[in-house]
Design a protein that fits this description.
431 residues; mainly alpha; 71% helix; 0% strand
Length: 431
């Protein structure tokens, strides 16, 4: 009966392959792998009964036999209206509105507004994310303070505010008639929760610049997941830029010296968590692309995903008793409360800026702005938290962002060329 606690207690040291700092050795229950399985068990307690109910209603042919006041709710959640849009070519976003009578100065002002909003939202979000997960609260000359450890509570805070903002936006503005079965949002929601959890948890083991660079390189697994989930095909230049990104990331990671401070050492646990983040996030984007075949707006997608995200996270937190503990931590440390609330505000506002920017200027301009944001985030983190980057690491960062800008340039050229070609012809052979 003593074997399981002993094995779990030794897992952190075995997983990282190096000595774990005392802050991460409070108990085996704080180890990320244990918490991951506990969280997954909480989600399963909601997913499994939901799956059984969906199968039950489908087997009963509930659309023909169902009656009562619950019929509209069950129909919306399980069946939907099954109306799909056949006119959306990219399957991810509605066609953006082209400006008709807007002056150049007005368009420049809009572009500056979008760029400033995205940069302010996500740079602040990144700085706060590192502060919350890597620094202590309540430290004095006699008391070392304590760290906040429950990443799932931060995910819940972000999702509840995003759910509120999206709900108000949908209520106050005209939206397309919704046709997707609500349960289909749960797949993207679950992967989105797990990717966010891995992202927060990884900061306990790796530096923020490493995480940002890994996130910039996620085009590689996104392409792989697109092949598996959506059966997509890609052009040769996309594989070339993906290879350049992998080379740049390798240069940055291999340039890290092993004798650095523990907060900047890339451990095995950090790499596994980053891989989990990238895999889950790649699935989320591809599943959302598939859902956009239904006629819906991005804000409706945001609302649907966050409904299930709130349900999963609050259910898991209540089952673990972690919700009350996190609220007590907020009561003890008002600074943490301000950081958590601002973190959620930045996340929700950032999503709205994303939708507005893509609607006004297209995906290419949005990608350039967000690529610059990633570079600024690395610089800001190094300045505020004292991370150091070697010459080889700096060259690796330059290679990554050069490849990202090359992708944007090549994609815009391909779109212009494809508009000039007759229907049915493709400018470049896809593989």
């Amino acid at each position: 009966r003593f074997c399981l606690p002993l094995v779990l207690a030794s897992l952190p040291t075995m997983a990282t392959g190096e000595e774990i700092p005392p802050a991460l050795q409070d108990s085996w229950g704080d180890f990320w792998l244990f918490r991951f399985f506990v969280n997954a068990a909480g989600y399963a307690s909601i997913v499994v009964p939901g799956f059984l109910l969906i199968q039950y209603f489908k087997r009963r042919n509930y659309l023909e036999t169902g009656r009562g006041i619950c019929f509209p709710v069950i129909k919306s959640c399980v069946f939907g209206s099954e109306v799909k849009s056949v006119h959306q070519e990219d399957g991810s976003l509605p066609p953006r509105a082209e400006p008709t009578e807007s002056s150049t100065a007005r368009q420049v002002f809009k572009l500056l507004f979008c760029a400033a909003g995205l940069q302010a939202s996500y740079l602040t979000w990144g700085v706060l994310q590192e502060r919350v997960m890597t620094r202590t609260y309540g430290a004095t000359e006699t008391d070392p303070g304590e760290k906040f450890k429950d990443s799932q509570f931060l995910v819940f805070m972000n999702r509840i505010l995003a759910f509120t903002v999206a709900g108000l936006y949908c209520a106050l503005t005209k939206q397309p008639r919704h046709g997707a079965p609500m349960y289909k949002y749960s797949f993207a929601s679950l992967s989105n929760i797990l990717s966010s959890w891995c992202q927060y948890e990884a900061l306990k083991y790796i530096s923020f610049p490493t995480q940002v660079l890994a996130k910039a390189s996620k085009v590689i697994p996104v392409m792989m997941m697109g092949k598996l989930v959506s059966r997509k095909s890609y052009e040769y230049w996309e594989y070339l830029t993906a290879a350049l990104i992998s080379v740049g990331v390798s240069m940055f990671l291999l340039s890290s010296a092993p004798n650095r401070h523990v907060s900047t050492v890339t451990t095995f646990s950090g790499i596994v968590l980053l891989a989990g983040y990238i895999i889950f996030d790649s699935f989320t984007s591809n599943w959302q692309d598939a859902l956009f075949t239904y006629k819906m707006s991005p804000v409706q997608m945001m609302f649907g995903v966050n409904v299930f995200s709130c349900l999963f996270t609050v259910g898991s937190l209540l089952e673990q008793g972690a919700l009350l503990e996190s609220l007590r931590f907020m009561a003890r440390h008002s600074e943490f409360t301000a950081h958590a609330v601002l973190l959620s505000v930045c996340s929700a506002c950032g999503q709205l800026f994303i939708f507005y920017t893509i609607n006004q200027f297209g995906a290419a301009v949005f990608t350039i702005i967000m690529t610059l944001r990633q570079a600024f985030a690395i610089l800001l983190s190094c300045l505020i938290y004292g991370h150091t980057v070697t010459v080889v690491g700096g060259l690796g960062v330059a290679v990554v962002f050069m490849a990202l800008f090359l992708r944007v340039y090549a994609r815009s050229r391909m779109k212009k060329r494809s508009k000039k070609l007759p229907p049915g012809e493709t400018p470049v052979q896809k593989v």
